[in-house]
Specification:
Blueprint: E1 3-6, E2 28-32, E3 38-42, H1 52-77, H2 85-88, H3 95-128, H4 136-139, H5 143-161, H6 165-181, H7 187-198, H8 210-229, H9 235-255, H10 263-277, H11 286-298, H12 302-318, H13 325-345, H14 351-365, H15 380-393, H16 395-407, H17 422-440, H18 474-479, H19 483-505, H20 520-523, H21 528-541, H22 552-561, H23 568-584, H24 589-603, H25 609-639, H26 646-651, E4 660-661, E5 667-668, H27 671-675, H28 702-717, H29 723-740, H30 750-765, H31 771-775, H32 781-788, H33 811-819, H34 825-828, H35 830-851, H36 884-901, H37 922-933, H38 946-953, H39 963-974, H40 981-990, H41 993-997, H42 1006-1028, H43 1031-1034, H44 1047-1060, H45 1068-1088
Antiparallel strand pairs: 1-2, 2-3, 4-5
Helix pairs in contact: 1-3, 6-7, 7-9, 8-9, 8-10, 9-11, 10-11, 11-13, 12-13, 13-15, 15-16, 15-17, 16-17, 16-19, 17-21, 19-21, 21-23, 22-24, 23-25, 24-25, 24-28, 25-29, 28-29, 28-35, 30-33, 33-36, 35-36, 36-39, 38-40, 39-42, 42-45, 44-45
Organism: Panagrolaimus superbus
Region (Disordered): 1-22
GO biological process, one term: neuron projection development
Amino acid sequence: MAARRVGNDLSRRKSDPTSSKLGNNEAVVAAELPWGSLKVVGNMSIDFHSLPAKFTVQNLLLEIFSMFEKKIQYACIEEPLDKFLNKSLKRCDDTYLDNLLRTLGNVSEVCLPSILEALIKWYEEQISLRKRSSTRAAYGVNLHNCLIVAETFAEVIGVLSQTHAKLVQKTFFTLLNEYRKETPLTQSVVTNIISLLMALKFFRIKTSQVSEIEQGVSFLDELASYYLEIDLKQKDLKHAIVGLLVEILLPVAAQIKTEANIPALIAFVDKLYVPTLELINKKQHKMAAYPLLTCLLCISQSKFFLNNWVQFLNTTLSNLKNRDPKISRVALESLYRLLWVYIIRNNCEGNTQTRNRLECICNSIFPKGNRSVVPRDAPLNIFVKIIHFIAQQKLDIAFKDIIFDLLGCTRVTRSNTITIYPERMNIGIRALMVIADGLQQKEGPPGMPRTIVPVASGTIQRMRKTYLTRPLTADVARSIGLELYYLPCRKAFDAILRTLDTDVGKCLMLTSSRTKGKEPDDLIGSDMKPKLDLFRTCIAAIPRLLPEPMPHHDLIDLLTRMTVHMDEELRQTAYLTLQNLITECADWREDIIHTYINFLTNHIQDTFPVLLESAVRFLLQLLCFWKSAIQQEKKKENLQPTLNGIGTIISSIGRGTTTISNSAGVMIPPNSVTNASSHQSVQSEGGNAIGQPHLSPLMNNASAIALHNVEGLALALLCQTRVQGKKMAISLLREVKSLFSLMELHDKPVLTVLDEATPYVLNKYIEHVPLAERQSWNQDFASACDKICTIDTDDNLVNSDKGNEYMHWDTWACALSGYCEYKFLPEQCPTAVNFAWPTLFVRLNACNQFVDPNNPQNENRASLLRSSRSKATASTLCGEALDQGSYLSLWQKYLVMSCALTQPPSQHTSVLARSFSPNGNLDSIDSVRSMTSSFRGHRTSAQVNCVHLFQKISSMLRWEQTRDMRDNVVLGIGSTNPRCFDLLLEELLTKGILREAQERKNESNVRRRKRRDLLRLQVVRVIEIAMFRGLLSASNLVDSQTGQLSHILLDLFSAIRVNVESDSDRDISTITSLRLHFAKTITLMVNSIPRKLYHSFGF
């Protein structure tokens, strides 16, 4: 490998993606690697002609020293002074540094002495460069960093003690004896001794062999002798020795399974127990004496423990209510360690005596009728562990006397509400979960509690226990012995959830009117925080613990609402719970999707786009978890024998059906049968049996229906003005398509239809850019979406004399109209369209109030529809609200999509009748009822159809305020679904709009005449757009028997023809546009009619 020195600038290959400019005065070393790229490092004193091994170690050490200096310099200069050093130098934050340290560890196995020598020299050099002061004032906030460095040194000593215990002990006592010789014992000497003691904080005694235990106990014995020699007046020094003894003894006590019959250990306990017991009643030494006395009892023999622990227990229980919170906390920690020894190691005593002891303890920490526990503000996990210990030997006491009381099982009212005691209920739920997990996983007895605090280096990490998330069913509870206790707990859990939802759930949702314009701190007071903490615990307990008798759809609704709660931690917990439900509860997946989409549609409006995007992003995560769960299930199925005949039974159910209403609230159209990917059904010989119901294949696949619901939502999201919203809609469609590949029966994926329609749409609807440029684009939907949304309209291309007003129309709205032509989405994706239509209708109504010219607040609105880019920006909680310009652009696209995907009225009375064979056998009807009742999904309370839409939008044709509004009304209403266009004409006729447009009498009033001409122009342009989109080929406007056009259109065309022939006292621009668009409409109509039908139209 050739190396060269570069002084000023370094010429690099343009193809190298990592190339960067270097400073003019920075000397670097560049080496060309075998694969062609350059390796650039700073100028370091490395002998490039040395042996490979020496070169490797030198280079490694210099790299590490360089990284150390950069890290320390950054921590001292860039970061806040009050930030701890261990936070800045935390492991796993810098991958490159972690790799260097890992390499250093591997190299140290070969040449450790040389590396240590180099590290010590570097360290000494760093020390010599800086002057240090011994006073706190000089260190300032860096005193914390000095303590962290000292703790790191203690960690190193602890690691060395595992292999060089004798050397560490000898060095320690040598230094200690030197300090002890100094007289008098000044404060400086005491400080040095305490620092020396702290250096052994991580010293550990090996317990694998008796000889190692005896060696360690001899060290403790010498330390104990020194402890007894110290006068009580030297409080700090005496407490430091006690602290070191506790640090060393706790791990030893945890490793003793039954009892240690080692004479040296027994003598050590006898030596210290009585002197320490005398200190627990002295106020100055109580904090130090409690932990040491606890450790001595924990390492003692069973006989010694049972004879002495009662006296200490009584003292401990009396100190739980001590006014000093530190003393009460120490007493509680002593209690739960003693309880572990009593129950787990010594297996309690006689039944009566044990019950009395446990009742005394429980009444002290869980007082009957109290709202809290004793002591207050103690970590709840300590109480949970105490209950867990008791359940190991006395399960009945743990549940009936403790958990039932904590959860308030006897206080549930008939209305399923309960008085909330947050701390007690939190402990009860956690204890129930821990006990059930231990029994189901058949774990052994819990280990002795150990206090694991964060260490400076970060090398000691707490291993978080993973709990089961699979629902704890009644059968499982019976198998693990919880049958008698589980149901009351579930009923109490139900009442707790309902009460908390009322108190701190619904009222603190981001969509609630109470939270508008307020910060969480303004609404969440000190009295609410314990309830919120309990609510988080309850949400996290699901689905392991399910409430009873709450229906599962109510539970899903509650969890869905909590995903938009003000409390961020509660939101994240609700997210995780829904993800676990998707993974663990296969029967609930469809309900979760339907409920979440319904909530998103009706409660998360477009006012706050950031909140909406966050909700959609979580829906995408749910789909990813669903796909992962299906893949895991298929892997398990492949390992099991394949059951024959299942596919035949399923596929024989659905051939020749029309429509049927399922529980998701969607009407599955007739053509969904032919569009299903597995639409060919197997029939028995001789045809179907008489009375056999003919059902759509989709009716057998609730999962496919739920995914089509997601597609419907994604279609509505394509109207979003923000680029991120459209990208997430496309991601949803892509994920659904991936999920469909794992299923059998479903409509054609929406994304596939959009991809296939893209070349057609680009050529026909996007005339704002040259054809050659359009043909150079990628012909897939996602790429076309990115391109179309960035097109800016140019008014210079508009020429009203040519009737090309569409050149200043929003390009994305035009594209959506093209994608929604009947031959694409409505025909090929009927189920997704049926789901999309209600969502679009709801959101169109919500936006309409912001753009309606009849609304006084919109009178001064300027024309802002010419750009489809939203002006909305993001903020912390909900984000900024949409401005009016963004609302106009959003309304425009909702109008186009709503009209294009609107659905005709459903004949509910004949749905079932048309789903059966003609004989009308009642058994068939019952079978369908039983089948439809088993479908899982969200039921909608009301069905909306095109009639409701036309009643709202028909009056828009009279809007005459601005050109933009008129143009977009034309594009929207002109994009109406051809299957519903006859109903649109009937609505216009009912509202008098067509009658006014057909009026042949000359109007003398100039204002009314102008208004009537504008109305005629709007109606003609609407029909022109509809003809452009292929109205006649897919509508009911042509009689199937006679081949004649609808009389409504014939009358309209006849009236318009007469009107355009007269130009007396008419506005020249209006009449010119009317003639032009009328001619184009007739031309489009003629071109869309097959030649064989010309005679029917009189051509």
